[in-house]
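Entry 12.
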Amino acid sequence: MKIGRNDPCWCGSGRKYKNCHSGFDKRIHDLRMEGHEVPTREMIKTPEDIEALREAGKMNTMVLDYAEQFVREGISTEELNVIIDEYTRKLGGIPAPLNYEGYPKSVCISINDVVCHGIPDEHTILSAGDIVNIDCTTIYNGYYGDASRMYCIGEVSEARKKLVQVTKECLDLGLQAVKPWGFLGDVGYAIQQHASANGYSVVREIGGHGIGRGFHEDPWVSHIGRPGQDILLVPGMVFTIEPMINMGKPDVFEDEEDGWTIYTSDGLPSAQYEYTIAVTEDGTEILSR
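Predicted 3D structure (tokens):
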């Protein structure tokens, strides 16, 4: 249904459409007519959505901050799962991974050659030399906050330390490539170039995602790309950037028994960092880190 210029704007601001998103929509329309892929209105969050996502992201960051003190040699991944579950609920949040499409735990913990979706258990103990990813997602007031961090346990080899460092650099370069009225391909290109320059590869099959009232929304965020390609980025879009960088080849496989855990095919280590970010009028805002 077409909106009249004097009708209330579709974004819920209460302002007349001509004074709110009329020019914004025309710019998107013109770029679509030029052949670019553009976001749907469902991908563009309202100011109220952004504020709610900011609060969910803040809580998720608090959970990761709290859990960090317990990430050490000798602790089991199940102990960390319980700590994260209990603290999330203490803050008034809900651990999003628990029972999501059958996932059995409240957090994903991935060690060494586990790329992502590692399932915590009491028999998996963090050991010196391990590199570990903790991927935490929190629901608060119906909105999602999502982020992950890497940890080096005890004395870690220089090769593994470098992988972790470069992966964080890839994330930050991807973030810098997010520009309002730019393109998602710019983000993947920045990540892929930096990984390749350091002798690493980027996981292709798994990417970031839009996020809001849903855990995984559009757009899908590839961590490889070409400048000026893929979907147009506009203010109000919210998504995760979460590159998975492999020390060896990019190929991965899923554990057939648990249906979740993703491993590198060559058995070499992988690292990942993740932010939830919002595209703003003049750049970006990190909502959870």
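Annotation: The chain has a mean pLDDT of 97. Helices lie at 22-33, 47-67, 77-90, 158-176, 184-197.
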